[in-house]
Amino acid sequence: MHVKRTLTLLALVGGCAPSSAPVGAPTPSIASKPVRADSNLVVAAQPTIVPAPPLPDHSVIGDSALLRRLAADSAADAAMLEKLHETTVAATDPTASLESAAAELGPTFDINVASYAEHSRVRYYLDFFQGSARDRMAIWLNRLPRYEPMIRAAMLANGLPGDLVYLGLIESGYSNTAVSRSRAVGMWQFMKGTGKEYGLRIDGWVDERRDPLRATNAAARYLARLTDQFGSHYLAAAAYNGGPGTIRRGLRRIGGTSDDAASDDEAADEPSADDSFFQLSDTRYLRRETKDYVPKLIAAAMIAKKPEKYGFEPVHPADPFQVDSIEVLDATSLEVVAKVGNLSLADLLDLNAHFLHAVTPPGERVFVRVPPGRGESLAPLLRDLPAAERLPAFTYIVRRRETFRSVASRFGLTLKDLSALNPKVKAAKVGTGTTLVIPGAAQLKLFAAEDRRVASDHRGSVRRIHIVKRGETLSAVSRRYGVSVGQLSAWNGLAESARLHTGQRLTIGMKRGHATARRSPQAKKRSLRSRSRAG
Asked: Left (φ > 0), alpha (ψ -120 to 50) or beta: where does 165 sit?
């Protein structure tokens, strides 16, 4: 859709070209769902506040340096994270080193790095991060100082070691907008179901998995719960990656927890040492990514703690992530907030990545984050802003077979309204490629229609086929795809307590009209009993 591309491009580069249009004038808006790109624009918690140049008149900036930079950075992040998650090590036996690192590392970390620094998998990932991943690793390391104090504080507040901050390195490279192939989102790569379980708002307007403050708090609480279950930070990290059910069953099989009759929902009876992870990782009970998850963490932590030792440039210091917030009572574009407050639009988009359309939800009281010290002065200006000026106009490129009248109808406008915003356009001569200016409020209709379409596609089509890996369970697969165990078992005609076998094919989502065609045996029995009682 032309309008979607227009809005997306402007969302990335809205502050790049000069103009003199006042707030509220029919200036094209950047307010749209941003491209899933990592914003590497701000490295300080208190960004430099510079005047945000007004947006260009009714134009699409498809070749700006900023757009190219963001797109290239996003692609490089995605490629390296994918490579990191797919890279595994065949060898598993510890290897001896000429000189042990234990004496040096022991006092340095509050997680047990020293005991495993010479493990073959750890050494492999130390080489990996210094080799093919060096350039990206350097970028990720320079993102760390901004978030490190916040993450450490959240971990410590939940009784966890602060050095679990380095999990963010291997999860996302500290990107708030990272999206995995399995649709895990944000710095902490939450699936939709798990995110909601830990209180994150995830809907068509807001996705708090992209909010570093809320997502970090949720991740710390989840890791604390897993640590309580397994008595080991490394087993907790493995469960964060592969699912607690997989870890419980694996430990039972190697004699690390209660016997096989224990429920999958029960916590481990006895605390497990960190050694148990490496014992478990040498078995067939974990999938390869989970086997290597903790070695990746240890290697990343060793480099992050002393980057110069491993050939990286010193990490640039940065102020910690800190924000002010202002109350907004109705749909308001972040572009407008930037103009009213004379803020950098790039900084504002970075601070509010959880607003999926760069617009606050309509009819809701929410808070927009702004740089520290700006909230008090900006709040009254935004509060007094007329409703008509909260969503500036945007451009729409007429598609094939559309007319001036059909475009007006599409956005719920009268011909008079549309003509008033486009005085130089003759209705009779509108054709494919004509650029029209549309009132800002029509954005809400676009976003709502898009969200309904996505939701309909999600409910009404087969999403994908999942091939079961060794050690996976229904609960682990359901968490991976953000669905319930009941849904997954119904889609595949399985009992909710069914065990999976390696190589088994699972359907994730069913076509509309077939949602009950493959009910589990338990569901069928309940249905028959209810019919019998009704008869």
From this structure: alpha
Give pLDDT, residue 69. Answer: 60
Q: What does pTM read for this prediction?
A: 0.69
> What is the rounded CA–CA span in Å between residue 260 and residue 104?
41
CA distances to 29, 359, 370, 376, 535 from 332, in Å: 11, 5, 14, 18, 56
Q: Is the pLDDT of residue 59 over 60?
A: no
The alpha carbon dihedral of 117, 120, 126, 127 has a sign of positive
Which helix (H) or strand (E) segment holds residue 215: the answer is helix 212-230
At residue 47's C-alpha, the angle toward residues 9 and 218, to 5°, is 80
CA distance 510 to 489: 12
Asked whether the predicted pLDDT for residue 271 surpasses 90, the reply is no
Q: Which DSSP symbol is given to 499?
A: P
Task: Kindly give the pairing relationship between strand 324-328 and strand 435-438.
Answer: unpaired
- Assign 173 a pLDDT band (cuts: 50, 70, 90): very high
Considering only CA atoms, give the Rg of the chain.
26
Q: Give the residues across from 369 on adjacent strands.
A: 325
